[in-house]
Design a protein that fits this description.
Radius of gyration of chain A: 23 Å
Order of helices and strands of chain A: HHHHHHHHHHHHHHHH
CATH class of chain A: Mainly Alpha
Strand content of chain B: 15-25%
CATH superfamily of the largest domain in chain B: Cupredoxins -  blue copper proteins
Order of helices and strands of chain B: HHHHEEEEEEEEEEHHEEHHHH
Oligomer: heterodimer
CATH topology of the largest domain in chain B: Immunoglobulin-like
Number of helices of chain A: 16
Number of domains of chain A: 1
Largest interface: A-B, 90 and 82 residues
Radius of gyration of chain B: 29 Å
Distance between the termini of chain A: 7 Å
CATH class of the largest domain in chain B: Mainly Beta
Number of helices of chain B: 10
Structural class of chain A: mainly alpha
Chain lengths: ~550, ~325
């Protein structure tokens, strides 16, 4: 029983009265805002990123309520357009892209490789300030007048006829992008330089591998996004023709540049999520991760291929048929490393000794939803299907399966997995399992109907729609309200655990990673003695010992 | 009944049937693999839950064969999906040679159609059943997308460039037309209908209140913009004769050879300096900002219709004034 697991360490070890850890190492506002401790910076990220998530969700709540009737319930066309744009911009650039690297990555990476901190602690703090600056900047533009271009900012609409705070929002996005870029650089340097003695490349936990792959994408792709968006600003402000054909530009150039960033960005979002799942499943199955090297190289396969599939967003945008053929083939290729991962996670369960605490429930949910989402990606890579479902709700459903069903659920799994390490407290098992279940069910109800809507031809970003689409829209809205409840629950039981939760002990899940061998919460310098690593990351006891609680 | 609930947009074009078969194939293949993963997940979770000690417990092996097996196995079905999908796609974007072009001009937030026979319509497109219809699509402002779910086709309307798609309706009926590329405030209102009719009814509709063919309207454009001053059959003409030009290869001054299609004609009207025909000088003024997309389309249709000897002579249409018009007394009264 899980409760026994949690209680035993407490009984064995009397809780010390004053425990020195990173939370109580120093006091006062300044000690937080000027901290160079990666763990504190992770907490600094956690708060605004969570806020951004709920703001983004709120915008979508407006949209989903609005779409319950064919004529629309709540919003004027402009307000509707601004709402889905705000939802997309906030969720993609200020939640999904940074959340796992900046919160969980920041907190865990040094702990997992046995380092005292990231390679460049000051740069890490600077990343946080850049993120905050970018987020506040973009939110100001969104709240002050709104942006109505969609998160994709397609030209020439964004550079020519839409009249709101487009340029300002783009500046915010670019600034936040550089925050991610600095984090990526920091991670790469840390993984190269600061591994504990004995922590060879193939003893790295999979979460570290995926952060490593993600960091390369940050480094290579963010500058292109910056270029694409800055050129829009140049066109809007100085009237220099880059994308607008009336000024001699090419409207498709923007799509090429934008997706050259934004498709790899999809993998920025999903790869660390895959890393989390690769940590959690072995831990709760008491099994070594199946096919470690295959999973590690698959991460790099995904990162590498992700740069060569961007034009699959443009199959019906008037690109040449031959380039469509090439990009379709490459898009199928990127599905292979993803499939490798799914098969290996499933195989890890084989002959395990599985328990179902909240992190495991989230991660099993991830495998199911990611597999479903990934499969529908094959439909979109198939040219003959994409030419029908392009820009319909089918696409919306597909990428929400990956982004929400995959990424958000993996993040929830990771947050629940490392929460006792971050805070030293254990949350309610009952409530957290309930939340996992509600999110899973709510998610399916929200997005499954959208596949049906899409194949029957409902285009995305429609303020009002033909009456025959209503039933499935109502179902989707009903599902989203369940999903909303699921998201709100952790907002109560997680903070509640800070004060009232039982002390978690250093290793509540009996996991093998280095981060679990230091007290919870960890001391300021992570480890009292630099650990020496003598085995791989998932050496769970085999045989009979595996089944002992 | 259940099928109606989840799949209510019938395929009404030759392409639609192909897309639906392809979809069915994908659903079956992906569905069975997905089901396999789901069943294994469930089975493992129940079979190997804590407390159930299996009989033998070997240490984790590293079965390379299994790894490479499931790494390479997807390649087979992927290849089938890819080739089949590519075939459907290439078919949908390669019009049969006998397809009649219908011109589509998109703007915020309406669709304008011009049939070669002369009918013009807004937000409604009439098409004949059983005959291929090729669309040449262009936008006047931002990017739009022409989407008819029942035909399972999609094509973006780009500003500054023609794109093309074709379809052949298989059933009579009225179908949704949507703009599927977000284009601003009234994006959701940029909808219309496609009415597929029996060929005989379609012919009747074409003849009804027709004000002359598109080419005839193009002739008026040709004269209105004084194209004839240079593009004449006059021996000293400063510009090439346009008779029989359409579809030919044109050698340019800079050595390139381009095909004279709608896109070439459009560019040559708007920015003539970019493509000077070999043997001529850069004397034509750019018409960018002077002429509408619809006029360009009409002019292009006219040029397509021009057969040898078809260029009007200048005298015929605009006879020069021979004397000062006499002022009639009532005009003077009217002016008072």
């Amino acid at each position: 029983m899980p409760s026994e697991v949690l209680v035993k360490p407490i009984l064995r070890r009397r809780p010390p009265q004053v425990e020195h850890n990173y939370l109580n190492a120093s006091r006062g506002m300044a000690s937080w805002l000027l901290t160079k401790d990666h763990k504190r910076i992770a907490i600094l990220y956690l708060i605004p990123i969570t806020a951004m998530f709920f703001i983004g969700a709120l915008y979508m709540a407006l949209v989903r309520i609005h779409l319950m009737t064919p004529t629309g319930l709540l919003l004027s066309p402009d307000a509707y357009n601004k709402s889905f744009t705000a939802h997309g911009v906030i969720m993609v650039f200020f939640f999904l892209v940074p959340v796992v690297p900046a919160v969980l990555g920041n907190f865990c990476l040094p702990l997992m490789i046995g380092a005292k901190d990231l390679a460049f602690p000051r740069l890490n703090l600077l990343s946080w300030y850049l993120y905050m600056f970018g987020a506040i900047w973009a939110m100001t533009a969104i709240l002050a007048g709104g942006v109505d271009t969609g998160w994709t900012f397609y030209t020439p609409y964004s550079s020519q006829s839409s009249h709101y705070n487009v340029a300002l929002t783009m500046v915010g996005v670019v600034i936040a992008g550089f925050s991610s870029l600095a984090t990526g650089l920091n991670f790469i340097a840390t993984i190269h330089w600061l591994r504990a003695p004995g922590m060879s490349w193939f003893r790295l936990p999979m979460f570290v591998w995926t952060l490593y792959a993600t960091s390369f994408i940050f480094l290579l792709a963010v500058p292109v996004l910056a270029i694409a968006l800055i050129l829009v600003i140049v066109e809007r402000v100085f009237g220099i023709g880059i994308y607008d054909p009336a000024l001699g530009g090419d409207p498709l150039l923007f799509q090429h540049l934008f997706w050259f960033y934004s498709h790899p960005a999809v993998y920025i979002m999903i790869l660390p999520g895959m890393g989390i799942v690769s940590e959690v499943i072995p831990c709760f199955a008491r099994r070594e991760l199946f096919g470690y090297k295959f999973v590690a190289f698959a991460s790099f396969g995904i990162a590498w291929l992700s740069f060569f599939v961007w034009a699959h967003h443009m199959f019906v945008a008037g690109i040449s048929a031959y380039s469509a053929l090439v990009f379709s083939a490459l898009s199928f290729m990127v599905a292979i490393p993803s499939a490798i991962k799914v098969f290996n996670w499933t195989a890890t369960l084989y002959k395990g000794s599985i328990t179902f605490e909240a992190p495991m429930l989230f991660c099993l949910g991830f495998v199911a939803l990611f597999t479903f989402g990934g499969m529908t990606g094959l439909f979109l890579a198939t040219l003959g299907v994409d030419m029908h479902v392009h820009d319909t709700y089918f696409v919306v459903a597909h990428f929400h399966f990956i982004m929400v069903g995959g990424m958000v659920i993996a993040y929830m799994g990771g947050l629940h997995y490392w929460w006792p390490k971050m805070t030293g407290r254990m949350y309610s098992q009952w409530w957290s399992k309930l939340a996992a279940l509600i999110i899973f069910i709510g998610f399916f109800l929200t997005f499954l109907p959208q596949f049906v809507l899409g194949y029957n031809g409902m285009p995305r970003r429609y303020h009002h729609y033909a009456p025959e689409f209503q039933a499935w829209n109502v179902l989707s809205t009903a599902g989203s309200s369940i999903l909303g409840v699921g998201y709100l629950l952790p907002l109560f039981y997680l903070p509640y655990s800070l004060r009232h939760g039982p002390r978690a002990g250093s290793n509540p899940w009996r996991a093998t990673g280095l981060e679990w061998q230091t007290p919870s919460p960890p001391p300021r310098d992570n480890f009292e003695v630099t650990p020496i690593v003598v085995r791989g990351p998932y050496q769970y006891p085999q045989g009979k010992a595996q089944h002992e609680p | 009944m259940l099928a109606e609930l989840i799949f209510w947009t019938p395929g009404a074009s030759t392409t639609a049937q192909q897309v639906d078969w392809l979809l069915l194939f994908l659903v079956l293949v992906c569905g069975s693999v997905g089901l396999l993963v789901a069943v294994l997940l469930f089975y493992f979770c129940i079979r190997y839950r804590r407390g159930r000690v299996p009989k033998e417990l070997p240490p984790t092996k590293k079965p390379l064969l299994l790894e490479w097996g499931w790494t390479l196995a997807p390649l087979g079905p992927f290849a089938v999906m890819y080739v089949w999908g590519a075939h459907v796609y290439l078919t949908a974007y390669t019009p049969p040679p006998d397809a009649t072009p219908t011109y589509v001009v998109a703007k915020q937030w309406m669709w304008k159609f011009q049939h070669p026979e002369g009918q013009r319509e807004i937000n409604t497109l009439h098409v004949p059943v059983g005959q291929p219809v090729k669309l040449l699509i262009i936008s006047e402002d931002v990017i739009h997308s022409f989407f008819v779910p029942a035909f399972r086709i999609h094509m973006d309307a780009l500003p500054g460039r023609y794109t093309s798609v074709w379809f052949q309706a298989t059933q009579e009926g009225t179908y949704h037309l949507f703009c599927s590329q977000y284009c601003g405030t009234d994006h959701a209102g940029m909808t219309g209908q496609v009415i597929a009719m029996k060929p005989a009814d379609y012919q009747k509709w074409l003849n009804f209140e027709s004000d002359g063919s598109l080419a005839l309207r193009g002739r008026q454009v040709f004269l209105k913009y004084r194209c004839l001053s240079c593009h004449s059959t006059n021996a000293h003409a400063r510009a090439p004769v346009l008779e029989g030009l359409f579809g030919k290869s044109v050698p340019l001054k800079d050595g390139r050879v381009v095909k004279a299609d709608d896109g070439y004609i459009r560019r040559s009207i708007l920015k003539p300096s970019d493509q000077i025909v070999a043997g001529f000088d850069d004397v034509m003024p750019p018409f960018e900002g002077q002429i509408t997309e619809e006029e360009i389309i009409a002019a292009s249709a006219y040029i397509q219709s021009l057969e040898p000897g078809g260029t009007p002579s200048r005298v015929e249409d605009y006879p020069p004034p021979t004397k000062t018009p006499a002022i009639k007394s009532e005009d003077i009264d009217h002016a008072k």
